[in-house]
Amino acid sequence: MPWLRTSRLWMSLHTARCSKDFFVARSYSRQPFKTAPGSLSPLKYTKRIAIGTLKVINFLFAVHLFTTYVGRVSFMAGPSMLPTLAVGGELVIEDLITYRLFPSKMARGDLLIVKSPIEPKKMVCKRLIGLPGDIVCVDPTGQIFPSTEHIVVPKGHIWISGDNAAASRDSRMYGPVPIGLVKGRAFARIWPLKSFKIFTNQITYIK
Amino acid sequence: MNNFWLCRKLWSYLYWTPAIVFLSDHFFHVKTITGRSMQPTLNPDSSQWRDVALFSKFAVREAQEYGRGDIVTIRSPENPKYVLIKRIIAMEGDIVKTLPPYPDLEATVPQGHVWIEGQESMPLIGKCPPGDEHFLSDDSNRFGPVSKGLIESKLLMIIWPPQRFGSVNVKANPTKGLSLNDEQRRELSRHARVQISASSFSSGQ
């Protein structure tokens, strides 16, 4: 490239490269020049791959912890919460951190995500009816128990019930549920998009 | 500059916390046991230290490998802030002969529940001395059967103090009736109070 030789910059570079100082400065520089990945030694190469894999796994762990402690999107289906939640299934954002940080925020009428007391692998979504110390009617519908029977919710327990009493297995069947089984609350429905809704507590008390 | 270096150093450790939290959350964690409710198996009066033990969460969460006789930690059904350490006496379907604070003489453990008891220095059947220390323990005799969902981890072994290092589950062998030690005798008396449900034999539990 003869035209480059004429340029001043090239000439200065050329002289610098020819001089001995250039190589000296290069070998003592803190940041060595990058080498192509093909020229890495096999040991270094495997080390780099191993650390990369560990970082990916670490990231997956972080995602998993987020979904177990902060919030997640989950698919819910079943007839027990009609008409609040559809039978066919929908995507709901679960808020798992509010009750973990502020257990006193639990209020009657909230939509809770609870580990089923009879099937520990299953999660259920039910409405909170009674807090510890409340007197609740065991079965207002009178289907399983006479509707005159009342019970005091014991310490550390809550009373939960599905919105669709006819097709719901809830506290009427297995009694009060320990608060330790409550994982979080249903925050919003995001799918189907046209029925997007943020669940708010619309309970009113009769004075 | 020094501050910057400190941040870099700290970040290089903090970066791996998700992995550590995940492992302690899903596999194994080490905890100090407080309280006297599992005496003399754990925290005996003769020991000058509190026991430190290794717990497996994997056995409870994923494998579901726990049964009668295993020592487990349980989120308290009465106050979710506390975690209790108790021994599983009976699984679902079993019929248990209860101890004093419980209102009924016998209780059937419902589906998805377990019967847990604390006090290890428990009286043999029919010999319940008055003023027995049984009341020290918050267990199923007070609050009834507990949901399996509240079980958090299973005790694998004691790792401190060193002279009691190792597994704590001593399985009694009823055929060697003459050479029973205290631990095995308690194990037998626990068995005698539980009528194991027929379905658990077929399912191989």
- Range of strand content of chain B: 15-25%
CATH fold type of chain B: Umud Fragment, subunit A
Subunit arrangement of the protein: heterodimer
Quick one: overall form of chain B? elongated
Strand order of the main beta sheet of chain B, please?
A: 1-2-9-3-4-7-8
* Largest beta-sheet details of chain A: 8 strands, antiparallel
Distance between the termini of chain B: 61 Å
Write the CATH architecture name of chain B: Ribbon
Determine the mean pLDDT of chain A. 84
**Fraction in helix of chain B:** 10-25%
Question: On the 0-100 scale, what is the average pLDDT of chain B?
Answer: 79
Subcellular location (chain A): Mitochondrion inner membrane
Family (chain A): Belongs to the peptidase S26 family. IMP1 subfamily.
GO biological process, one term (chain A): protein processing involved in protein targeting to mitochondrion
Domain Peptidase S26 (chain A): 59-139, 148-191
Please give a structural write-up.
The complex is a heterodimer of chains A (207) and B (205). Chain A is α+β, with helices and mostly antiparallel strands. Chain A has a domain at 68-198: Umud Fragment, subunit A (Ribbon), CATH 2.10.109. Chain A contains six helices and ten strands. In chain A, the strands form two sheets. In chain A, strands 1, 2, 3, 4, 7, 8, 9 and 10 form an eight-stranded antiparallel β-sheet that branches. A two-stranded antiparallel ribbon of chain A has the order 5-6. In chain A, a hairpin with a 7-residue loop joins β3 (111-115) and β4 (123-130). The mean pLDDT of chain A is 84. The longest helix of chain B has 13 residues, at 2-14. With 205 residues, chain B is an alpha+beta fold. Chain B is 23% helix and 23% strand. Chain B is elongated, with a radius of gyration of 20 Å. Chain B has helices at residues 2-14, 17-26, 58-61, 140-143, 182-193, 198-202, and strands spanning 28-32, 52-56, 71-75, 83-90, 95-97, 106-108, 113-117, 146-147, 151-160, 194-195. In chain B, strands 1-2-9-3-4-7-8 form a seven-stranded antiparallel β-sheet. Chain B is built from six helices and ten strands. Chain B has a single domain (27-187), classed as Umud Fragment, subunit A (Ribbon). The A-B interface holds A 54, 57-59, 61-62, 64-65, 68, 103, 115-120, 154-157, 174, 177-181 and B 15-16, 18-19, 21-22, 25, 75-80, 110-113, 143, 146-151.
